[in-house]
Amino acid sequence: MAWESLNPPRDYLKAGVRKPYRDVIDVSWGDPHRAGVKPLSFVRQVLAACLYPKLMEGDRLMVDVRQRAQRLLKECAGGSIGSYSNTAGIPEIVQRVSEFITRRDGGVPCRRENIFISSGSQWALNILKVLVNSEASPRTGVLTPVPCHSTTILSLMALGAAAVPYHLTEERGWALEVEELQRALDSAKGVCSPVALYVINPGNPAGYVQNRKSMQEVIRFAAEKRLFLLADEVYQDCVYGKTEFVSYKRALAEMGPPLSETVELASFHTASKGLMGECGLRAGYVELVNLDPAVMKHINSLFSTNSCAPVLGQIALDVMTNPPQPGDPSYPLYMKHIRTSLAENVRRVEEVVNSLPGFSCQPVEGGAFAFPTVFLPPKAIERAKEVGMKPDTFYCLRLLEEAGLLFSPGTEYGQKEGTYHIRFCIMIPLDVMEELLRRLSGFHKRFMKEFS
Amino acid sequence: MAWESLNPPRDYLKAGVRKPYRDVIDVSWGDPHRAGVKPLSFVRQVLAACLYPKLMEGDRLMVDVRQRAQRLLKECAGGSIGSYSNTAGIPEIVQRVSEFITRRDGGVPCRRENIFISSGSQWALNILKVLVNSEASPRTGVLTPVPCHSTTILSLMALGAAAVPYHLTEERGWALEVEELQRALDSAKGVCSPVALYVINPGNPAGYVQNRKSMQEVIRFAAEKRLFLLADEVYQDCVYGKTEFVSYKRALAEMGPPLSETVELASFHTASKGLMGECGLRAGYVELVNLDPAVMKHINSLFSTNSCAPVLGQIALDVMTNPPQPGDPSYPLYMKHIRTSLAENVRRVEEVVNSLPGFSCQPVEGGAFAFPTVFLPPKAIERAKEVGMKPDTFYCLRLLEEAGLLFSPGTEYGQKEGTYHIRFCIMIPLDVMEELLRRLSGFHKRFMKEFS
Question: Where does the signal sequence lie (chains A, B) (predicted)?
């Protein structure tokens, strides 16, 4: 992560240097547990029981936890989570993931052969290997949003592909507009040869949620330009506004033939993000739709030359896609955890940030991040240049040093020339959010005064 | 895995078709838990306590389990194994791994900056990316042993490198001989440009353990030919014969300057193999020695564009490299598990297999596999050709169908023209091994009679 270099301030905290804050609040990652969010008990109990089956003796764990763990262990080779699974995942878990997708999409069928469990949705981007010819000239291109989290861009570069940036329209709530896709496509002429369109919904770092109409336009565009659709839908559980999450798979199916039978789509999901937030377990899946059987064969062999995803991560995916149901003993507590809604965090962020001079935050409709614009005073921009930093990096560094808040600058994600943003994770306990907003407000006012 | 296609026979078992065996014994993987080996309690208890810290309340778990889990949780961001770690691993675990290596190598120092934890030793082969230029002509070559497990060869191919096979000398206990390395190097002329030499010690599938003298010869050869040494040492805990395991790092250090300061070496280890056998957790590490600082920079950025290894796997590595010590409450049970030695399995395999007509098994000095030669009768070879199979694949398929033993054929690993081998995992409970040998003996005698 590009911001690991910012960890040293913690070291001086440890070394006892006095700072005007007690501890750093690190909201630079999309990593809820790091920021103090507690894991879901049901998930952890099932995992612990699978790891150490002796825990299932007696009635210390609820009966549905024990039943789930017993079933899952039966599905592991040799009855142990310590054995390898099939490289695309434990077949029974793959089957249940596919059933979850069918339910989620209102009955649009999902075929289990199209699901591949991997050690994270980022890893699954490797399917691009079948699209990218690293020796091609001009290079293979992938249309990618601005702003966009940097791991995707780095993955594309590692595969030898070129990112072709298209801008989301901030003033319209970070809308994805087809005219801009067309402009981006035109811009690639003579530079690279675009084969895919990468969309993030709900957004990261920009917290938009696409509506059906917008998705249909994007799908038509992809069809017309013969672009493979890569849909990063890892925040599908995290929606706070009026627009409900609709998967690209569902939007595509609803459009009917010929589109529903021809547009090639990969949709990514993970146990790392959303309400579960189990980043450390490393597991995600990709669903592939409408791929040519010959290409599927390549993808199968791509997966089969790799080892399986961590088995405990696969089990977390099983729980994520098949949580406790009404009537199950663990259901009430599970729902209580799940309902610890982030809506209040989002409301407070919008309220406080928008009240600060020189800040503007679009509604956070979904995802895990706020990505407000900060209008930096010319003197601050000048000072940043003097010290050889991007202005928003300068702002974030000061914010860290003076207020103990570890944010990331918009520079890391791409932003329109002359605009500056900061990103911070909103998936944190409400009391931590209040402390964060208090520190941010105090710091920002001092900063603006200093450079006014 | 190439042999997944052989799973169907299990399906007919489930479907109730009568077979002359109760269940398939699958020893085609190096996957002890799959074959019925029980996980180490201490490992599983620490992992379960980290996952579900409530388990540490009361005294259900030994005090050293609780202390270990508490320390590890403090080292995780936000005190949760659900958060990301640094991409090279949790710094404190990396530090303890480096201390383990120093102890193992009799004090030869190990620098923590040279250790990278990844999601398995196979993944760590990606460091070859810095050596392999996929666009080079002629292609980059890597000297690889015959026999060799196929995952390495597949990884090399995926990176765009060419494998340059060198043969181990079966009749001398699968010895690695420098003359053969020279022959292999010569064979590459005009075909590819070798930059690295891959060695497996203890062997897989051939169960040799290299002695110091042989390693020194290999190191001198690598130095002279300027080859990067890639040492697969994942079975370092599994040694049954007279030759003790010496790491390439140690052998190199003992040779003194200039070699000890110049030969570039990567050594791989993992929690999947050896006595722990936690394949499903997905974690391993690589130690890099004598690499150019500029190359190390590349490797650092290679790791930093990836997500971290599964945190629970990292914790398993911590336990593997720092097991309970004399005086710790968990020590007696841990030692009892560890001492459930495989030496008796090995003795029985050599005894029984070598007593069968047409079989010859070199001493299994280390590793997880037996890889005996089977001298197939000409009529069997002919029949195999008729059905379009390699003779050893034909033998293994019959063995599966008639005796319920899932072995893998030598064809998968490479073998001298006209010789045939079978590989099977010896890390199985002793009663399973006895049943395996009973079935193998019965089947083999019938097979030899049928084709005599």
Answer: none
